[in-house]
Amino acid sequence: METLLVGLAHPDDEVGVAGTLLAQRARGDRVVIVWLTRGEMTEAFGPISTAEVAQKRTAQGMRAGELLGVETRFLDFPDSALVADRESAVQVARVISDIQPTGLITWGDAWVRGMRHPDHQACGKIFRDAVNLARVAKAISPAPPHRGDLPIFTIRDVYSTLPAIAVDVTPHRDRIAEVAGIYLHGLG
Questions:
Q1: In the chain, what are the helix, strand and coil shares in percent, each to the nearest 5?
Q2: What is the pLDDT confidence band of residue 112, given thresholds at 50, 70 and 90?
């Protein structure tokens, strides 16, 4: 059994990779989504406090995790203020040490055009840097280092010139729509 770590910035980022996650689960693999923030800066719920938004977005993420059949974790980085610094990477490296993944999906840099949330850029860098720091015992002590193979697969736009890996998600279309519906229509 493989363990896929999915490192994302906000609850709802998983919608774009939901089919891949469902395909991994269908193979019998363990999948763990780690969101760095709770998406508390969204205005999707109208004029309510960031604490209330965080509660709603956490519930949405957990519901998405249930529909996907994956484990979910939230870290408490601030939404719309992610910084890809060493301290953030060390915190995520400790999570990597705990999960011991054999693969990682996170945001990539290979965007040719289109707007991207700055948190996605920072999130990808944090997770990619954390893979290296997770190997260094002194960096993540007292957690044990994770020195196993950990290929990184990145989310990027369709115009990227990097090679693509395709996963047939056709059997999972209905469930992908359900996950997307959580964020479009409520908790579902």
A1: 45, 15, 45
A2: low
pTM of the model: 0.94
What's the token pair of residue 165? Answer: 């890996």
d(Cα 44, Cα 40) in Å, to the nearest integer? Answer: 10
User: Measuring CA to CA, which residue among 97, 106, 186 is closest to residue 137?
Assistant: 97
User: How far is Cα 63 from Cα 179, in angstroms, rounded to an integer?
Assistant: 8
For the record, the structure tokens of 92 come out as 């995520």
Task: Give whole-number Cα distances, 154 to 16, 84, 117, in Å.
Answer: 12, 16, 15
Show the tokens assigned to 98: 């705990």
What are the strands, taking DSSP E only, across the chain? 3-8, 30-35, 71-74, 103-107, 152-155
Q: Give the tens place of pLDDT for each residue, 137-159.
A: 999 999 999 999 999 999 887 77
- Range name among 112-116, 144-148, 158-162, 165-169 with the lowest pLDDT average: 112-116
| 41 vs 36: CA distance, rounded Å | 13
